[in-house]
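Hi X.,

You mentioned you wanted examples for the new student's onboarding notes, showing what a folding record looks like when two proteins sit in one file. Here is a clean example. The first protein comes first, with its sequence line followed by its structure tokens.
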Amino acid sequence: MTRQVDVAILGAGSAGLYAVGQVRKATDNWVLIDGGELGTTCARVGCMPSKVAIQIGEDMHRRNIFEREGIEGGEQLILNQEDAMEHVQDLRDVFVDKVLSTSTDEMSEEEFIEGNARFIEPNVLEVNGQRIEANKIIIATGSTPLVPGAWEPFRDRILTTDEFFEQESLPASVAVIGLGVIGLELGQALHRFGVDVTGIDMAETIGGLEDPVARDAAIELIGKEFPLWLGQAAEVSEAGEGRLKVTAGDNEVVVDKLLVCMGRVPNVKTLNLEALGVELDAKGVPAFDPHTMQVGDLPVFIAGDVTGERPILHEAGDEGRIAGFNAVQDTPVAFERKTPLSITFCDPNIVMVGRGWGELDEDAIAVGEVKMGLLGRAIIMGRNRGVLRVYADKNDGRILGATFVAALAEHLGHLLCWAISQHLTVFDLLSLPFYHPTMEEGLQAALYDLKGKFDEELDHPIELKPLK
């Protein structure tokens, strides 16, 4: 049995659903195919439930400054881990139901097929014994947490994000292996839930930080909450009584479970991408144009986490839109990609905007910096820790990027991302209003420090613009 469609979309995650949104504007003859868990990675095991856990942890952690504010009894507060995890799961289910109720639940059997597709030819798929010939195909099959094969004997004591949000109770002790976005967020949340946490990463940094000043600040601040072992790979072995021994260099700890956050691998294993007839990289992914999302000159597009390049929701959304739009065009259109923005919702936030420290020529940039210790709003909140670093072109003052380690830096990151997208300079930004007292004044202070690195003098106050 063969079915003819204009577009077949593989994967009902964020990228796939955004692709459907574009495709259905141009044709009714499309099909969405997915044989895995529905509801998107973000809603099920990613962005949303992790923020619930982080919020609970922050609320509990807040009791540590109650005494100075005259609030008594904070030391008597107890976090019921089982009830907390039930709350995480309840809200997770709300987020998943919201996705399903506006997507696959509304699709007919013709529009949505539950099953795993595999390529027969570049424009031919097989799913559930049915052959589907498509003018265009979009690969949006997402990714899966990586667990080293050598650790498979301990799999019953290993948690990834796929298992973490299903836990009804938490272990007494955990080693978090991998201190990127997920490891830092969940590791700190677990510590604030009362779990004994040890963080381990073979890199010399955390949260992907490259800026040396920001890196040192983040390591110092988060390292005050739980130990961070950096620069050595973790090794795991049995410790008896169902526990695991984890070593990294000269460090050793015995824990109940591991939380493995060592990255994700593209879901391509069962797709038979060899049938595309193009070279695949080490992860099994074909080369593609990031501005059209097209794979070579094939009638195939790829989008979302499966690419392994920009595992962030708004990027997956854009890639889905690009792939979906181009799948119904005669000639693909190249689209500009957004200014990079990365946020780790640990405390303090770790935010990277625009061009990263490793991409910049230190001799060609000026850097503005402010430490958060004296910022009024931060002092009031009891969160006056961290540093803001802003990078500008030394020639014209145009903002190129920034790295923030500070409370509520998620908001500062958005502001600066928008400024970079508009090609604004440090002088442009300082002419804009900064309300008092706000965390944004920290950014203002960093910009003043940056302005001081330039010789340019105006004939009027930089904060003002003469009427034209």
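Then the second protein repeats the pattern, sequence line and then tokens:
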Amino acid sequence: MTSAELAQAYAAGRLSPVEVTEKALDRAETAQASCNAFTLIDHEGALEMARAAEARWQAGTPLSPLDGVPSTIKDIVSIKGWSVRYGSRLSDPTPCAADAPSVARMRAAGLVFLGMTTTPEFGWKAITDSLYSGITRNPWNRDVTPGGSSGGAAVAAAMGAGVFHLGSDGGGSIRVPAAFTGISGIKPTFGRVPAYPASPFGTVAHIGPMCRRPEDAEAMLAVMSGRDLADWFQGAAAFPALSPEAVTPKGNKIGVWRTPPSGYVEAEVAAQFEKSLADLAEAGAELIEFELPMRDQLLDIFNWHWIAGARRRLDMLGDFDASQVDPGLYQMAEQARDWRVSDYVARVNLRAAYGAEMDRLLAEELDYLVAPGAAILPFTAGEELPENSGLSRWIEWAGFSYPINLSQQPAMSVPAGLSAGGLPHSLQIIAGRGADSQVLALAKWWAGRHPEYFL
């Protein structure tokens, strides 16, 4: 059931938040047993929250229309009373003293917290495994990865362990696992969802919702969004309010982004993307071939931002045993040990030039940009790279995601059918900064056109 359907059932007394939470906890245990999706399942705490929601609905005083909807939180965002471990053996196990702003907003709306979902160590890569929690697997095929770094959240969503799932996205960490597991996940415009403390990975890191359907992502994003004075990076400008507008592709100028700045596109992914484009054209969209500005420089620009962030994250640990850190994370962070500050600032300035041109293109020339949610299909679980890919790091195969972290536009991955091997395909929808409702509206149209694609 969607969050709206649950709310209607709660209001009418046809369902209780306690009953729904018990079922969601059962699904969470199944997701954990089969795919290793959780670092914590809090039966007692979730049922306590559900009983409070039930009492409020019975009294006619719900905290919000979403009071009692079961939710999960990625093990990288602070939750009062829980030990947030960031997927790391070296993290502090002391329970958090306060909620992160996004979690506080979810709590204030009455959402029920089932538990914390898995992440690679400090969210450093677009797959989900760690020395701390082991390998998270894809429910479509347990031999392959669900992607990451919000892989546990994606698995929980796909397997029905709750309706709302909080993820984060620094280089594709919402959109890649959404693509790999056949769910809907949106990286909002940077700053729409407040974050505190600030991410060591800086202003490429976004927080957003992951759900089975776009309308749930829209409802969750509305709850999570807003100004929080603890998040200085938000700035003081107000975002356009989310609105439940309806759109069709007809008359819209949609840029077709076929070529990522790194890696390659699998032939089957490219073929399915062509089918998605044909759907959009048939519905009246004007499709315009698109090349990213500064395409040949984007991998280098992102690497400087991401690898410097990894260096900072490990430096925050002080003296530590390197054998207790993911070897890939350690090796990547070591690259930045002797980087020059002036060279880093040069990449920041290049990023600004790229972002400004993306803003202009999506304000003056295009209504939307579309691409595959991921350039490749899910590959072997526990591996950073597809076999025989010739690539050196996950960033290279995530070429349809990290450029939009650099430019900070809203971007959403939605299901687009299944591969010949039964693994999910995806479509990514992108619009100008602040146009989150526009992205969600086209995603909802897509879900209405292809209900068979959605869980």
